[in-house]
Design a protein that fits this description.
735 residues; alpha+beta; Beta-Lactamase; Heat Shock Protein 90; 7-stranded antiparallel β-sheet; 6-stranded antiparallel β-sheet; 17 helices; 37% helix
Amino acid sequence: MNFVECHDEPIHVPGYIQSFGYLIGINAVSHSITFFSENIKELFQIGNSDILFGKKISDFPELFQNVMTSDIFESLENLTRRDNETYFDKISINGKIYHFSVFRSQDQIFLEFEALLENPYKRITNKYDNFYINDNDQEIWDQLLGTLFNIINYDRVMVYKFMEDGSGKVIAEKTNDSLESYLGLHYPESDIPRQARELYKKKRKRIFSNVFSEPVKLLSKTFDTIDLTYSSVRAMSPIHGQYLKNSGAASSFSVSIIIDDQLWGLVTCQNSVPKHIDLEDRVQAGIFTVLASNAYSSFKSKRELEYRLDLNSKASQLKSEFLKHNTLFESLVENKSAIKNLPEADGLAVISENYVVTDGITPQRDIIHRIVDWAYENTEETLFISRSFLKDFGDELGLDETAGGVVIYFVEKSKNELLIWFRREFDDHINWAGKPEKKIGIFSKNGEEKNIFSPRTSFEVFKENIKGNSRRWSSRNEIAIQSIRDVILETSHRQYVTIKKLNEQLKKVNEELDSFSYTISHDLGTPLTVMKLNAQMLLKSLSDTSDKNKHKISSIINEIDNMAEMMNDVLQLSRAKHSEIELENLETQQTIQKISENAKLTFDSPNSEVIIKNCPTVLADKTMLHQVFLNIINNAIKYSSKQDHPKVEIEGREEEDQIIYRITDNGIGIPEEEKHRMFKIFNRMNNARKFKGNGIGLSIVHRIMNRIGGNVDYESTDAGTCFILTFQKPKFVKP
């Protein structure tokens, strides 16, 4: 005995049609009759229907006069160029009005007939565009059902949505209160097997008027099987017929809901007693379903656009926050709440090497480490998503309810950097329309008995508890995680580029330091020694001179010693690429005054007016601070010394968490075209050639300010220059 599973049943070639319809098939080229339903002889009152085989409709004008004179038959060549393009007309046969439909399927043209029925209950008051003014998707489906309920007048109409796992769920329903509600119930995937779903995509309206009526056999001398995929009168499969009987329905009508070219769901209608729906009403139901489907698709697209825009905004903000930190780990930790919330997770773990930082509801640290070890051993991709992690690996990893579902993202496997999002176990249940079960049944076809999986006989609500799973990670959640990945990759690339540039700059600085060290040690060291020896000899030879002159020479010797010491410190700094600095709270008033007085002597500018205003304490290295002010003040006095009224103004002020000094002169100014070279070593401006110097000072200042966590910049015009020194604010010292 043959055995047939539900998904193997050839439902598109049943060999029968339903009793409400009549069918004639003709060859698309020759137009000769190749098959017809057995009941054609009653419709057209033919004594011996065998005479039709191989002949044309036009060969029997007395029988098919009204068919031949119909608009669609006269235009048959033009109307049947493409498969499943159906055209309708109404004709009179033996004094009764029938719907006449024509369509092509492969090399056959189908002529279908069914009696016209008046529907006294039909009421349509909704405008076609009403679907597009609803505020949510549920309103769209509820409105559709309200409209269809008035057209077809069945006991129950409902929207049946296919879920991701293949099962179905009733998400909207309208009844006349004579039947129990199915709203919210789930149906197993086997209720609508694969080949049935494929047919629903091809033939989008399907009616079974009377599940108890005997089907009408198809007759053909040309074909063993006839493909009735696109036929409205195709007989139902025995399995589906039994299923409907078991559910208590005597009539069934369905319309496919197609979203984005996929079978999203069905409008399913059931009646407790046999009832046929007129063809026009079925077509109209299909039109309203398409309108509702398009409205839902538009609504969905609008909501998706709103979500994407909001997500892009949050991602941009997250990116901005990431770039405020020096390392990726710091960026992740400082923004952990935002990273957790974007994919709507309950908890997040940020792992880097042996460091674990969590946010929200997460497992204990030892469990997180076990999950990390498991992920390294069992996942090859950078992203792993599961809603059944607790169910699948709970015993193996010792998980608790905090790890019902997870998303694991490897930021960098080689560095042991990863993110884990957690969702708690979702203690829920599914209400099934009857307990899913399979029983063996027997049905007979063409005298041959076959075993089948018989449809279940009970549709009482069966509650299935769900354990070990979390809420499903939706496509939106996955998009959010992808957005976070993009932010990480982009900011990591930027940090990489920044580090690369810094390394290149460091290489150049090191080269400059080597050159600078050579200049200090060879070119400047010897002249200083000679100057000091000559000054000492001069001091000894001036035994009879005044104390004032002796003091001046002693000051020269002291300054030479200070300069030598300063040079030695700078030389040591240039040689030690990673030398440590000591930041401390330093007062600047005396240093600035002393440097200013000495600079007037050094550059022979006694008339220079140096105005020293507020001098707040700064956080800096003592030696480096002196070197900074020395270079900037010396430059200010030197390059303004040839003015009629040379003037230098020095003022510091506190701004938020910084101390900013401005050293302003009325000197020669800095040309705009020189700006990009101002802090390069040995750089000298063309308008400064008449002044002594070697172009080292500003390079030293720039390097030092960076090292002590500050900054140097300037503003310049023809009227002079203002150098801006930004220092860190002093640390608070407890008394």
